[in-house]
Amino acid sequence: MKNLSKQINEIIKEELSLINIKINGPVLLEILKYKLIDKLKVSNLSFNSKNVIDKDGESTSEYELSKITNKLIFFKSPVISLNTIIKDDLLIICLKEIFRVDIENIKSKKIFSYKCTPFTGLIIPDKSKCSFNYSKDAIILELRLRDNSFNVENSQESTI
Length: 160
Known about the structure:
CATH architecture: Sandwich
Number of strands: 9
Distance between the termini: 53 Å
Number of domains: 1
Structural class: alpha+beta
Strand order of the largest sheet: 1-2-9-4-7
Number of helices: 3
CATH superfamily: Jelly Rolls
Order of helices and strands: HHEEEEEEEEEH
Largest sheet: 5 strands, antiparallel
CATH class: Mainly Beta
Helix content: 25-40%
Oligomer: single chain
């Protein structure tokens, strides 16, 4: 099944067309998370290492003033990524195996740990400091949301 990434991309575009255009930011990702998980559970997609041929293929969808980039990632061996700063709002959905995320609270510097099992997801806001621990044979769907509406408003204010 070479087009696993393409099928997931079609599901994302279909679900985005059903969401109200006034919704954006992390709220959009939260709604999209539940819709995607429900749709992926119902679909007959098989998430095996053999099926994820296009491991790091990215695709981009435009949604009003936002840009959503999705990436299907397969980890052959356990991977740990420490102290990563998130640049855009991020939705991570676990499709196979488990992964752990440690998120540092900006104000209190406390670390919150989350364990994601298959068909669960987590939304991480922009500029968060995180550590990721992916298990062997994990398949992860990453969606990044770059919201351009803030840039448009700021540029209009500066020109007036």
